[in-house]
Amino acid sequence: MKVKYRMTPFARFLIFMIFFTPIAYIGLQYYQGENGLQKAKDLIGWDSTSSQNNTDPESSNNSSISKDRFGINESVQDQIKGKEREIKELEQRIRQLKREVKELR
Question: How far is CA 82 from CA 5, 74, 75, 90, 97, in A?
Answer without folding.
Answer: 59, 12, 10, 12, 23
